[in-house]
Amino acid sequence: MSYDRSELSLPHRQNGRVPSPTAHRPPPLAPASERPGSGTRQRSWSSYHRALRVLRRACRWQRRVATFVALGYFAVFLTLTVRAPAFMARPAPGGLPTGLLLAVVQIPVTWLAVLLFEYSARRFVDPLARRVSQYARPAGGDGRAQA
Fold first, then answer.
1. How far apart are CA 43 and CA 95, in angstroms?
2. What sections of 27-125 are H helices per DSSP?
């Protein structure tokens, strides 16, 4: 589940300034009648559609990793409870039974999954979402619908 980030990187700074959003907007597609082979509909994979597909893929990957962390630990805990009850009843350091200690540790593991989800959202998904919204803005307006 990897994806190519080469085309979707954020605009690079030029002379200490970030270029305007319209500087990276792809040129509009030519009308179908002017395109070669206009008799058949060509599939357009413009940068907007590519960015949207990569954003969806990144969101799916993010959900899977966070879910695996939280539910994976819980599944291991349940498996140990069923398959190794003697191990779970053995006292752990501090005098608590190992099963109770592992049950209490599940709270920090769940918080870790939430923090991992938020970190990956800020680091990988949010820049892709900004890129998609950059392509979705109208070319000459402020984003409001015209009546």
1. 66
2. 47-83, 85-89, 98-120
